[in-house]
Every structure is written in C-alpha cells, then in structure tokens.
Amino acid sequence: RGRAGVDLATTTALTLVDSQVTCIPANMHGPLGHNLSALLLGTSSITKRGLFVLPGIIDADFTGCIQILVWTPNPPVYLPEGTKIGQLVPFHAAVPTATNRCREKEGFQSTSQLNIDLVMAINKAKPVEKVTFTTPEQEECTLNMLIDTSADVTIIS
C-alpha cells in the first residue's frame, strides 16, 4: 500500500506569460537510487487548474536537476515556489541497453541527435509547401505539393 508517485514541486515562483512550452526546475535531482527510472506526470489537481505537464521519462542514470515541461492554453498562470505540479512514478526499466553510456546531467534527447526535417504551421487551409527536387541528371524541379502530415514517406512519380 502507499502512494504510486513522489511529488515534484517548483523551486522558484514564476509566471507563465504565454502558451509556449516552459521548462521548470523541480525540487529533486537524479539519480533516483536503487537503479530506478521514473515516469514524470502532472498531478490531477494542477491539470484541473489549466496547467498541463508534458509526460516524460527520467532514466536511472540521470544525475542532474529534474526539469518539468509545462504548457497552459490560458496564460498568465502564476506558480508560487513549492507548488506541487508533477509526480514521479518509479519503475525498474526492463529494456536491455545496447551500450553502457552514462547520460549524467544531459537530458532531453541526450542519447541521439535531434533531427527536424520539416516544420510548418498547420491551420484550416490545406498544408501546401513549395518543394525543389534535384534529379539524377542535376536538373531542378520545383512543385507546389500538398503535404500529408501523417505520412512517413512521400512518393513522387
């Protein structure tokens, strides 16, 4: 019996002034001990107030300050120091590791390169983008293409 998670609180008072994702330092540092990893979730009470904690994973070998990613659709939102906004739900990872790499204080994509290939605003209009291709004969071809935002591959014939 007992609680499923450990509460995380803000370390300073802050005001979220826009709807951008914000990284907030928590009152806890890694490693968590006992070779535990944890799922970072928001508390139900903070979600009810209109602040959304983006879920994340804290690996067992992480050694830095735990950061909480938050977002609000209705700024401004004031958070006093010590506000409990997140919780860690610990678990033992069962995934075999390919390498013995220690992440230390790195976080947020520290295990691989961040790769963003195409970024575009999606609105009610059809997502059309001007795309330039180079053929094997080194000729350029520019087309206005409808972008399928749920496709993993685009085929051009």
The residue fraction in helices comes out at under 10%
Beta content comes to 35-45%
- Low-confidence residue ranges: none
Measure the end-to-end span. 61 Å
The rounded Rg comes to 21 Å
Shape: extended
State the strand order across the main sheet.
1-9-4-6
By DSSP, the count of extended strands is 11
H/E series: EEEEHEEEEEEE
Total DSSP helices: 1
What is the arithmetic mean of pLDDT?
82
Q: The biggest beta sheet, please?
A: 4 strands, antiparallel
User: What fold name stands as the CATH topology of the domain at 6-91?
Assistant: Deoxyuridine 5'-Triphosphate Nucleotidohydrolase, Chain A
CATH class of the domain at 6-91: Mainly Beta
GO molecular function, one term: aspartic-type endopeptidase activity
Domain Peptidase A2: 143-157
Pfam families: dUTPase
Protein name: POK9 protein
What do you see in this structure?
The chain is mainly beta and 157 residues long. The protein has a domain at 6-91: Deoxyuridine triphosphatase (dUTPase) (Deoxyuridine 5'-Triphosphate Nucleotidohydrolase, Chain A, Distorted Sandwich), CATH 2.70.40.10. It has one helix and eleven strands. The protein has a four-stranded antiparallel beta sheet. The chain has a three-stranded antiparallel beta sheet with strand order 3-7-5, with no helix packed on it. Strand 10 (128-134) and strand 11 (140-146) form a beta hairpin. The longest helix has 5 residues, at 44-48. 14% of the residues are buried.
